[in-house]
Please model this.
Amino acid sequence: MTRSKTASADKAPIVHAAEIVREYGPFAGADKINGVTHDGHNVWAAVGAQLIAIDPDSGQLARTIDCAGDAGTAFDGTHLYQITEARIDKIDPATGKVVATIAAPGHGRDSGLAWAEGSLWVGQYRDRQILQIDPATGQVLRTIETNRFVTGVTWVDGDLWHGTWEGDESELRRIDPVSGAVLERLEMPHGTGVSGLESDGAGLFYCGGGSSGKVRAVRRPKRATAAV
Model:
């Protein structure tokens, strides 16, 4: 249920209760979800020693890749990217081979990962930042400040969203990519964590559920318009 359909004059964010439409998992041997992405067909999740691909229609595993994954996952239309310790691996999903590696900007403190506009966007959990980096060199191109821990990042229809998780509270937040101001919040149920975030490019977000071992599909709200 939507608590507030329009932002107030003081730019208060629009707030909704997140609508979880489906849960996937837990899967055997996948005790924790560390990162999530979507390749246009399957949902991929980093579960520690593997990347697993989930068919979103059947909920069954479509395939697995032996690949360490400690945090965020992304897909650029051809390759997967996976944060592992202090590096980001570029992976050929057809073969599972690592074809390139760059240093992760947080040196092991990175969280979410997304691909957009030819760049990688990397969440910095404790620093409460999202960094735009060059996918070939790892050079930081831009820093976006936010006011909560970042546990997942995604772009969809020109909007920047990130997951946050502190204690038993977690949210999906749409923020202004220039100022970092919070524009919209989806409040997840109490005790439901968010570890990894990706859009399917349409009406759903996919959220990692941390130690629950689950991936959750959350309905993306239609863009609300602030009152004049």
Observations:
- The longest strand covers residues 61-69.
- Confidence is low (pLDDT under 50) at residues 1-9.
- The two ends are 23 Å apart (CA to CA).
